[in-house]
Write a structure and sequence with these properties.
single chain, alpha+beta, globular, 96 residues
């Protein structure tokens, strides 16, 4: 029998930042409530079908909305680009 010592993970980290002046209030609200919003979409499982507490940390300051996760189960890129129709050239990924 083989054993493994050490940390094993199948998760990945990801982050994004979007200038607020590129978003409507409705889109900002949708980003903060992405799980609830995604459940309204017929293709919900296109986002990973997350049915548990999401690991995305979403913050906002006066210029940007930012998101970060260590457990990338919810496809935020699909949600932002395909569902909310935010142009991919507006979103900066993995800025950390």
């Amino acid at each position: 029998m083989k054993t493994r010592n050490g940390f094993v993970s199948n998760s990945s980290s990801s982050s994004f930042i979007i200038p607020l002046d590129m978003l409507t209030e409705c889109k900002i609200t949708s980003i903060f409530n992405h799980i609830e919003e995604a459940k309204k979409y017929q293709g919900y499982y296109d986002f990973g079908g997350v049915d548990f507490d999401d690991a995305w940390m979403i913050t906002q300051d006066e210029y940007y909305i930012e998101g970060y996760t260590n457990m990338d189960n919810f496809s935020m890129s699909t949600f932002l680009e395909d569902y909310l129709k935010i142009p991919d050239n507006v979103i900066k990924w993995d800025f950390n």
